[in-house]
Amino acid sequence: MSYSDKLIDHYENPRNIGSLDKGADDVGTGLVGAPACGDVMKLQIKVSPEGLIEDAKFKTFGCGSAIASSSLVTEWVKGKTLDEAGTIKNTDIARHLALPPVKIHCSVLAEDAIKAAIADYRAKAGKKVAGAEGPKTGEVPAAAE
Amino acid sequence: MSNPTAAATASATGATCWSCGARTAGPAPFCTACGAVQPPGQVDHFARLGLERLFEVDMTQLDRRYFDLQRQLHPDRFARRTAREKALSQQQAAALNEAYETLRNPLRRARYLARSLGVDLPDEGRTIDDPELLMEAMERREALVEAATPAQVEQLANDAAGERNDVLQSLSALFAATDKAAIRAAILRLAYLDKFTEEARARRFSMVRAEP
User: Fold this and answer.
1) Chain A partners within 8 Å of B124 (Cβ)
2) In this predicted complex, what is the ipTM?
3) Is B125 exposed, middle or buried (0-12, 13-18, 19+ CB in 10 A)?
4) What is the CATH number of the domain that holds B94?
């Protein structure tokens, strides 16, 4: 089995390894695992007030293909809107890295990780909005006038 | 059922011996009447090794049964038999190996039993997002990367081994109670602990090898 140059490059020089502040309001964290092979992947995005992904970090414990897939995704999502980032498909990742068939599941992990990070960010933002707009009983929001 | 083709493809349990036509009893690899080797059939792994269908397995007994059957199926014993008997003994040996390898490994044994209970386990290519389990797996793997000495690695491996024992203990009870959700959770945890054990061994090996 031979690996593509792009895959080896991402594996040997992974982009955006690290962590963002999980507790920050503008950070979404996706944590997914593939129990069949014992891989675990964390992918985080930092979203600007304009709704653009301004930073992305990952930490993956798994095979080279899993590391390369998550590295590639962090590179791809930077500068994208959440909706754009949400359209990334595992098949795009697998094709770009020329993953061999037995490693396709690594790209699935990366797709699920970015989706989970987006969902986490949206859940946080939704909570914040709900908290700001949900007036307590008896309170009249000033902006309603 | 005297049709030899039907007998050859039917399950070994209660099938008819292809050689003498007698009803062969149970999952034994040989006909109880004439002694001819039988097709392996779809015999349960536990039954193939003559064990009770329980998660808890007596390893000494498992090994003894396996080596005993393996000896009976050894190719040397079939050197002067017909081509059909040679082929059947090879199929029996392959089925025996598969059963043994599955039952010997606790994770594989647990998965095998769980599947037969209809527990939904994630196969290759399926992902999970159980945050507690994954966070724990992530932290453990980070600690392994940060470990600087073989002793530190060993400490982490020992902690994992202790937890693994607890999971194995709990699985016995969970299978006895057929608690499917808890069986699933325990198997996922076991999978990550096994993976960690493997990684810790590799890490320790590379450290020891790197020493001058």
Assistant:
1) 34, 36-37, 105
2) 0.78
3) middle
4) 1.10.287.110
